[in-house]
C-alpha cells in the first residue's frame, strides 16, 4: 500500500474543450508526495501552478485523471464529501494572507476549528499554541490591519495548520514580502511543517527557498518534470 499523502494520476485540465479556443492548462500530470515530504513547485507565470494546486486541494476538479488523498479517491466524490475532506485534510496558504479583517489573530485561527466541530476552549488553546510557535502570540488580540505583513502571513500559517491537515498547499506564500522578511517567515513555515510531519507542496519563484525543500519539480506549459 502506498504511503503517498497526495497522488495525481494522469490529471488534465482543459477549458473550452472542443472549441477553437480550447486551452490545455494541465497535460497528463503524474505526481506523488510521500508522508512528511516537502516538495517545491517551481513554475513561470501562466504555467498552470495555481490550477494544479486548486485541483490537488479539491477546490477544482480535473477534466480527466484521478486525485487521491491519503489513498482515498477524491475525484468522484460529491461536493459535500469533497468539502469535508478539504476542511479536515488540507491546509492552504496563499501569497496574500486572506485573513478575516474583523477578527483578531486568535479568532482567525480558531474559526476553522470551530467549523470542524472542535470545542471552543480546545480550539482557542491550539490557536494560542500555534501563535506562540511562530512568534506572534503577543499580537493575538490584534486584527490583521494592526499586524505587519510578516505577522499576517504567520497567522495565515497557523490558520492553515489549525485543523491538523495531512497536506499543506502553499501558493507563493512569501511572495508579497520583502526578501529579508520572506526568508525569516519561510524558515518559520518550513520548521513548523517539519515538526508536525506534514506533507507539503509549496509553489515558489524563489530558487533559494526551493532548494531548502526535499525535492523540486517544475511545471512548464502544463507538463511536469523534475527541476
UniProtKB/TrEMBL annotation:
<keyword id="KW-0472">Membrane</keyword>
<dbReference type="InterPro" id="IPR017911">
    <property type="entry name" value="MacB-like_ATP-bd"/>
</dbReference>
<keyword id="KW-0067">ATP-binding</keyword>
<dbReference type="Pfam" id="PF00005">
    <property type="entry name" value="ABC_tran"/>
</dbReference>
<keyword id="KW-0547">Nucleotide-binding</keyword>
<dbReference type="GO" id="GO:0005886">
    <property type="term" value="C:plasma membrane"/>
</dbReference>
<dbReference type="GO" id="GO:0044874">
    <property type="term" value="P:lipoprotein localization to outer membrane"/>
</dbReference>
<dbReference type="InterPro" id="IPR017871">
    <property type="entry name" value="ABC_transporter-like_CS"/>
</dbReference>
<dbReference type="GO" id="GO:0098796">
    <property type="term" value="C:membrane protein complex"/>
</dbReference>
<dbReference type="GO" id="GO:0016887">
    <property type="term" value="F:ATP hydrolysis activity"/>
</dbReference>
<keyword id="KW-0378">Hydrolase</keyword>
<comment type="similarity">
    <text>Belongs to the ABC transporter superfamily. Macrolide exporter (TC 3.A.1.122) family.</text>
</comment>
<protein>
    <submittedName>
        <fullName>Lipoprotein-releasing system ATP-binding protein LolD</fullName>
        <ecNumber>3.6.3.-</ecNumber>
    </submittedName>
</protein>
<keyword id="KW-0997">Cell inner membrane</keyword>
<keyword id="KW-0813">Transport</keyword>
<dbReference type="InterPro" id="IPR027417">
    <property type="entry name" value="P-loop_NTPase"/>
</dbReference>
<keyword id="KW-1003">Cell membrane</keyword>
<dbReference type="InterPro" id="IPR015854">
    <property type="entry name" value="ABC_transpr_LolD-like"/>
</dbReference>
<keyword id="KW-0449">Lipoprotein</keyword>
<dbReference type="InterPro" id="IPR003593">
    <property type="entry name" value="AAA+_ATPase"/>
</dbReference>
<dbReference type="InterPro" id="IPR003439">
    <property type="entry name" value="ABC_transporter-like_ATP-bd"/>
</dbReference>
<dbReference type="GO" id="GO:0089705">
    <property type="term" value="P:protein localization to outer membrane"/>
</dbReference>
<dbReference type="GO" id="GO:0005524">
    <property type="term" value="F:ATP binding"/>
</dbReference>
<feature type="domain" description="ABC transporter">
    <location>
        <begin position="6"/>
        <end position="227"/>
    </location>
</feature>
<dbReference type="GO" id="GO:0022857">
    <property type="term" value="F:transmembrane transporter activity"/>
</dbReference>
Amino acid at each position: 500500500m502506498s504511503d503517498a499523502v497526495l497522488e495525481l494520476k494522469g490529471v488534465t485540465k482543459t477549458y473550452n474543450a472542443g472549441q477553437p479556443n480550447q486551452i490545455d492548462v494541465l497535460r497528463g500530470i503524474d505526481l506523488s508526495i510521500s508522508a512528511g515530504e516537502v516538495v517545491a513547485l517551481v513554475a513561470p507565470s501562466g504555467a498552470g501552478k495555481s490550477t494544479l494546486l486548486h485541483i490537488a486541494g479539491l477546490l477544482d476538479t480535473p477534466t480527466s485523471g484521478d486525485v487521491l488523498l491519503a489513498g482515498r479517491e477524491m475525484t468522484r466524490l460529491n461536493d459535500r464529501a469533497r468539502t469535508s475532506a478539504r476542511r479536515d485534510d488540507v491546509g492552504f496558504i496563499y501569497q496574500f494572507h486572506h485573513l478575516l479583517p474583523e477578527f483578531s489573530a486568535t479568532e482567525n485561527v480558531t474559526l476553522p476549528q470551530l467549523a470542524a466541530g472542535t470545542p471552543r476552549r480546545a480550539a482557542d488553546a491550539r490557536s494560542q499554541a500555534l501563535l506562540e510557535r511562530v512568534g506572534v502570540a503577543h499580537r493575538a488580540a490584534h486584527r490583521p490591519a494592526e499586524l505587519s505583513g510578516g505577522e499576517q502571513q504567520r497567522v495565515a500559517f497557523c490558520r492553515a495548520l489549525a485543523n491538523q491537515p495531512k497536506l499543506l498547499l502553499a501558493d507563493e506564500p512569501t511572495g508579497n514580502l520583502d526578501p529579508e522578511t520572506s526568508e525569516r517567515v519561510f524558515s518559520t513555515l518550513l520548521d513548523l511543517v517539519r515538526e508536525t510531519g506534514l506533507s507539503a507542496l509549496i509553489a515558489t519563484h524563489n530558487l533559494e527557498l526551493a532548494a531548502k525543500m526535499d525535492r523540486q519539480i517544475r511545471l512548464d506549459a502544463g507538463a511536469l518534470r523534475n527541476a
